[in-house]
Amino acid sequence: MKVGMILDAQFPPDIRVENEARTLAENGFDVFVLSFTHSKDLSSDEFWHGVRILRIPISKNLAKKGRALINTIFDVYTPYWAKKINGFIKQYNPDVLHVHDLFMLGAAFRATKIKSLPIIADLHENYVEGLKHYRFANSFPGNILISFDSWNKKEIEWCHRADHIITVIDEAVERYAARGIERNKLHVVANYVNIEYFLNTPDHPDIIDRIGSYFSATYIGGFDTHRGLENTINATAIVCKEIPDFRLVLIGHGGNSGKLTELASRLGIEDRVIFEGYQHPTKIPSYVKGSSICLIPHLKTVHTDNTIPHKLFHYMLLAKPVVASNCAPIERIVTTEQCGLIYQDDSAQDLADKIIKIYHDKNSLKVMGQNGRAAVLKKYNWQEALKELLKLYRDL
Fold first, then answer.
1. Which domains does the chain have, with CATH numbers?
2. How far apart, in whole angstroms, are the C-alpha atoms of residue 396 and residue 392?
3. Using CA atoms, how far apart are residues 112 and 87, in angstroms rounded to an integer?
4. Model confidence at 315, in pLDDT bands (50, 70, 90)?
């Protein structure tokens, strides 16, 4: 069977897509990934771990603007992608389209009008709710052009039209079922860590030693308002009064990066907050290894209550206690596995109290780390998650 994956991003890296594409290729499927390239150094046609990657050259800025206009009166991105997908179908004749992210489904449906193909919608997140927190949707001209009501309707329409829907967590299944989507086409392929790939990443001793020289709390991910990073910096101002060598390590970038640096400066803790910027995925394990604890400070919303981040399982695998906000899936796993502490998402004081509590209880810190690692080795790993993916494809 030929699988055509559609991805609106440069590939690799993308942890989820890498895991799925390699797993299917290793199990006898012919896998193609139609994606972008923003770099002249990447080939337009490349074999990667048994997967054929077909790349469309486009500037990152142009792709970003086009994506923001999907489902608006100025949407030129959907017909653009539909044309690319249609050309891919004619040339490579896939048996199924595996479409990553809700906003790409419109292009896929348009492209398959001539030749009908099964469409698997791989919904990495609750995009409609996430959109409400993205800067481009809340600033001019996005706040005028983008209709959340229209996106809600499109989500239901496209989910009904898709032949199968992949989600990342059980809570998301319940949400789609409550919206009238048939349960028999809902599948959970969780964002669990691929232990083999992750642990085989070479160490960067300089990173491990530098971060490890402090009592450090590390966050890895995007910098958007719904990530709760402002709250984390406010908590740092409290923690520093109790823990002299405390450092908050922030790895990533995003729309509110500037406001975060300004906040740290205004609070007089710019020397306690380490902004590392975007880091290549191969460096991430070293940052985690050097950290004392790791953070997931997301604000509790409909969006964050229906998704699960990869980083939770990265932290757990490397035996780091997790201090996380009370988003439903994260709270369920951290509490069940006793691998960290949960705080009220909008309370800087509660977050600070939890960090200070772990600092003063070194035994609990060690036990929580061991519990998290044991849980990942047993069940929160890609070898368990891939079973549902392979079952779905073998049943097609």
1. 2-191+382-395 (3.40.50.2000), 196-378 (3.40.50.2000)
2. 6
3. 11
4. very high
